[in-house]
Every structure is written in structure tokens, then in C-alpha cells.
Write a structure and sequence with these properties.
Strand content: 15-25%
Number of strands: 25
Mean pLDDT: 96
Radius of gyration: 23 Å
Helix content: 25-40%
Low-confidence stretches: none
Number of helices: 19
Largest sheet: 12 strands, mixed
Length: 558
């Protein structure tokens, strides 16, 4: 059996200029090619499409992720290919992979098997340099902040209340908490600092929520980096950093065009994590796809409790985007894992464990339909060891809820294997009898918004925080930030904040450990449980398997 990278390297890619012209009607002059098979689309061309009608938007989400795998990106790619196979003009819109998981435990984010986006190596490594630009913009602001303090501190910044952190696109636990400016007066004022991973940076969030270059610059200027000794916020605009930051992002903000293994167009742009950020590709890329296609298939990170909730409550709330249907991805293996089966024992039929693990799928489906107001279909990502009885049990449980179930085989068969899923999605889009809902209204106080997400979406009994965190939330509320949505950072592995709690736990308490204001992104981050904004590498990182031969051919990526 060929590996993902071997399948991708055997692909017969078409020049990206041909894909753009023949499939999307984008002229050559509106493209900025990065080699033969990837290109950026000019913002001026996208602006010229403003009067074009929008296509329909489909959201792909999933159950709580497990080590057994679910295949959300693979399903997104397979569904896009299938829609094109049955005569629809479809485009997929995905996030860019972070190098942290590529070299860590999760691997890349280009799909898998015969449902991938290519060139796979480029997409999973440096791609078009967007993440490097985001890291540079973030760290330029950090450098200008420390330089301002060193050069006389005209803004009277309280060095004890600096909140802006540096970033790097790599899992490096040693950088979580550090001390900077050691070595004497020439190096500035020593203080505690730390690094986050790039995908947790507010600059990444702004990048993915901005509507235009002008909006990008406005949001960058609104970033709050510290407080003065009088307790007033200091922004990137106060430091004069916003213009230079926007200049670094001038080219990165243009969406990236690539293709699937079946030569269908794919737009890949931006990449915030869903467990520590809002988990969606850029608004600019999604809007571009909607102008260029009849149907756009996009995904939100991790399970429907994280990525899909933020897709609705943050991205859709801020942009006006409205999906017409959702796909909830599951595997028999993952559901048995949620039912208590050890990873090594998932190969055999186990209807009892599957039935128990179905609680996880049922909770996610309930959230998608009842909390977010979206019609959905369950897509079982097929594995060869699945049994007919296992598929029948999933169908029976979902049919009792009025939710269709499709077994999809896109990993093995590409778009052909996802055609039944494509037809099911088209049926949902044709019904149009729904109205997307938010979990909470804008006017609800920040603390109550957090409680609503925890109780209504996670099944928690309530939320708690120590006095310092509660005081911070109260100050943000009083300072006029109470209308902003909340972005919950928590483990992706469970509805609770305990990653070992499988299935659909209820009655647990969500502890808010830290609160960060993202004034430029226009949301408030609630950090819960033990989640880290700078992940660490596992005992055996994926980097151990990645290599390049004497001819430059890469191996080991997945």
C-alpha cells in the first residue's frame, strides 16, 4: 500500500495557470505564481467579483479527535472532488498546515490517500511563506515594544503588564516561559516573557478574519500589547508598528490556489488552531471561493465543539457567512475508542463499545443541529476492517435522530468514493429549511458567554475561575469589550477539559485558567484546563521519519 506522500508524488498535476483560467476564469495577470503548481490570487481581481452571486457553503466538522483518526480534511477534499465529478462547480477552502504538528504528532493537513491537495510537500512545509510573514509581523511588534521601553518609555508602559508574546511555528516547550533582556542595560529591561506557536498568535487570527488589506491594517493597529502604569491599554498603533506589520503581510494576505489529486481547484489560506484559536481558514479565501464556485466545501478544526462552534460564533458572526449544510465526520475506529477500547484493539468488531462511543457522535450532531441550526449528514470515513454490522448500528442510531448516514470511500477511491456523500449534501442544500444560530447573543456578558458554551455545547455543569481571572474578565467587560465573542482554548480530545474523558461526559466543571484580550481579532480568549498555547513535541516526533534524498525527494510526510 502506497503512503500518502507516495500517492501525492505520483500525481499528474496540471499547471496552476491552467486550473485558474479553465476552471475558475481567473486571468493570468491576476495570478502570482510560486513555481508551476501554486499561485496567489490578486486582491484586485477578487474585488472585481464583488457583484457576482455567492455559491453555497458547506461546513465539514467531526467528532472529538482520537489517535485512531477521523479524516476531516480527507473528507473535505473527497467531497469537493465528488461534487465536481457529478457536474457541480465546486472549490474547497482549507487551512494551511502548521509546522508544529507536521513535525510533531498530528502530521500534515493536506488530506490523505486518494483525497489530497497537492503539491503535498510544499503545502505541508513552507508553502508560500504566509506563516513566516505572520511570525515576522508578530515578532516585529514584540521588538518595537521592548525597544520603546528601552529608548525612554514615552508611553509610560508598565513592564509588569506587558502581554504581547513572541511566536515561532514549531513545538518547543522550552520557550513557553522565558526571561528576556538579560546581560545589562544595553539589552533592555529584564522581564518574564514567552513564546506561543504561530497559529495561536493574534496576528494569525486577524489575518484570517480581516476582510481586506485596509481592514487588516486597522485590526493590527488595535492589538493591545501592554498597559501603562496608569492602567490604560497600549496598542500597536500607539507604538507605530501597524504600518510595518501590514507591509510584511501585504503579499501573504492574498489567497493561495492549488489543486487536488483530481485537478480540481483548492484555495488554502491561513491556519489558526481550533483548540487554542478559532480554527478556520481566512474570510478572504472563503469569500473568494464563494465568488468563484457554485459550492464551496470548507472545514473547521477538530470536533464540532471547538472548530464548528468558533466557525459559527466568531467567523460567521463577524463576516456574515452562512453555511447551508454541515458534514459530521466519524470513523468506526474512533467511535469504538470513545467507547473505551484501547488503540491497539480497534481492529475487531465490537458493537458494545461502538454503541457506547456513539454518545460522542450524538452530542456533536445535536450541537450542529440544535445549537448552530445547521442540517447535517454523518459521513463514515471507511476503513477496510469496518463491518456491515458496525455501519448498520451507526445508521440505526442516527436515523432515530432523523440524520442521514453515508459511508464514504474517498481515501481509497478519491472523488468516486465520495459521490454518495455529495448527493446527500446536495439534498440538504436543496431543502433550505433552516436558519443558522449563534450559541449566545452579542449583548450577553463575557462570563455568561463562556458559561453558555460550556453548558450548552460541552455538557458541563458550570464554569469556575480564581479571583484574579474573574477580576480580569470584569475589567474587560467594564472597558467595553463585553460585546465580543469568546474563543475557548481547551483540549480537543474531550468535551471536558480532561483529555482522557472519552465519549460525551456531562456534569463536569470547566476551569478558566487565563484570559487574553484579542482586541484586533475582536474576541476574548478563554484558556481552560491544561491547554498550552505552545505545544511540545511527543516522545517520538514525526520529524524522526521525515527525510530527503540526494535528489531532493522528500519522504516520511503524512
Amino acid at each position: 500500500m502506497k503512503s500518502d506522500i507516495e500517492i501525492a508524488q505520483a500525481a499528474k498535476m496540471r499547471p496552476i495557470v491552467e486550473i485558474a483560467q479553465q476552471r475558475l476564469g481567473i486571468p493570468v495577470e491576476a495570478l502570482e505564481p510560486y513555481g508551476h503548481y501554486k499561485a496567489k490570487i490578486s486582491l484586485s481581481h477578487l474585488a472585481s467579483l464583488a457583484d457576482q452571486p455567492d455559491g453555497q457553503l458547506v461546513l465539514v466538522t467531526a467528532i472529538s479527535p482520537t489517535p485512531a483518526g477521523e479524516g476531516k480534511t480527507t473528507t473535505t477534499v473527497g467531497l469537493g472532488d465528488a461534487l465536481n465529478r457529478i457536474g457541480k462547480r465546486a472549490v474547497i477552502a482549507l487551512r494551511e498546515p502548521s509546522l508544529g504538528p507536521v513535525f510533531g504528532v498530528k502530521g500534515g493537513a493536506a488530506g490523505g490517500g486518494h483525497a489530497q491537495v497537492v503539491p503535498m510537500e510544499d503545502i505541508n512545509l513552507h508553502f508560500t511563506g504566509d506563516f513566516s510573514a505572520i511570525a515576522l509581523a508578530n515578532n516585529l511588534l514584540a521588538a518595537m515594544l521592548d525597544n520603546h521601553i528601552h529608548q525612554g518609555n514615552a508611553l509610560d508602559i508598565d513592564v509588569r503588564r506587558v502581554t504581547w508574546r513572541r511566536v515561532v511555528d514549531m513545538n518547543d516547550r522550552a520557550l513557553r516561559d522565558i526571561t528576556v533582556a538579560l546581560g545589562g542595560p544595553a539589552n533592555g529591561y529584564p522581564r518574564e516573557d514567552g513564546f506561543d506557536i504561530v497559529v495561536a498568535s493574534e496576528v494569525m487570527a486577524i489575518f484570517c478574519l480581516a476582510e481586506s488589506l485596509t481592514d487588516l491594517k486597522r485590526r493590527l493597529g488595535n492589538i493591545v500589547v501592554a498597559d501603562t502604569r496608569a492602567g490604560k491599554p497600549v496598542t500597536a498603533r500607539d507604538l507605530g508598528a501597524d504600518g510595518a506589520m501590514a507591509a510584511l503581510l501585504r503579499d501573504a494576505i492574498k489567497p493561495n490556489l492549488v489543486q487536488t489529486l483530481e485537478n480540481n481547484p483548492a484555495i488554502i489560506h491561513g491556519g489558526p488552531f481550533a483548540n487554542i484559536a478559532h480554527g478556520c481558514n481566512s474570510v478572504i479565501a472563503t469569500r473568494a471561493a464563494l465568488k468563484l464556485a457554485d459550492i464551496v466545501v470548507t472545514e473547521a478544526g477538530f470536533g464540532a465543539d471547538l472548530g464548528a462552534e468558533k466557525f459559527v460564533d466568531i467567523k460567521c458572526r463577524k463576516s456574515g457567512l452562512r453555511p447551508g449544510a454541515a458534514v459530521v465526520v466519524a470513523t468506526v475506529r474512533a467511535l469504538k475508542y470513545h467507547g473505551g477500547v484501547a488503540l491497539a484493539d480497534l481492529g475487531g468488531e465490537n458493537l458494545e463499545a461502538l454503541g457506547k462511543g456513539m454518545a460522542n457522535l450524538e452530542r456533536h450532531v445535536e450541537n450542529v443541529r440544535e445549537r448552530y441550526g445547521l442540517p447535517c449528514v454523518v459521513s463514515i470515513n471507511h476503513f477496510t476492517q469496518d463491518t456491515d454490522a458496525e455501519h448498520a448500528l451507526i445508521r440505526e442510531r442516527m436515523e432515530s435522530l432523523g440524520v442521514p448516514v453515508v459511508v464514504a470511500q474517498h481515501w481509497a477511491k478519491g472523488g468516486e468514493g465520495a459521490e454518495p456523500l455529495a448527493h446527500a449534501v446536495l439534498q440538504l442544500l436543496a431543502e433550505r429549511e433552516h436558519e443558522m444560530r449563534f450559541v449566545y447573543p452579542d449583548a450577553m456578558p463575557l462570563w455568561e458567554k463562556m458559561r453558555a458554551v460550556a453548558t450548552d455545547v460541552y455538557g458541563a455543569a458550570g464554569i469556575v475561575a480564581d479571583a484574579k481571572v474573574r477580576a480580569r474578565i470584569d475589567r474587560l467587560q467594564e472597558a467595553g469589550y463585553g460585546h465580543l465573542p469568546v474563543c475557548v482554548a481547551k483540549t480537543q480530545s474531550s468535551f471536558s477539559t480532561d483529555p482522557s474523558a472519552r465519549g460525551a461526559p456531562t456534569g463536569h466543571t470547566v476551569t478558566v485558567r487565563e484570559v487574553r484580550l484579542a482586541a484586533g481579532a475582536e474576541f476574548v480568549v478563554m484558556i481552560c484546563g491544561d491547554i498550552m498555547t505552545m505545544p511540545g513535541l511527543p516522545r517520538e516526533p514525526a520529524a524522526l521519519r521525515i527525510d530527503v534524498d540526494d535528489h531532493g525527494r522528500i519522504s516520511g510526510l503524512f
